[in-house]
Amino acid sequence: MAYIITERCVKCGACESECPNGAIVEEEKKFTIDYVKCVECGNCIDNCYNKAIDEI
To answer: What is the pTM of this model?
Structure first.
């Protein structure tokens, strides 16, 4: 299952620190997911305090 970081992202960094492959990338307004590096482990979605990561 692929994931997307939505506009609810407040750039707290909780997802970035839990990603084992460094697939979470900081952009200007929010974090994004590098789908080449993402192994769809779900750590990011499980650790997002703002529920800003959705399955697609």
So the answer is: 0.86
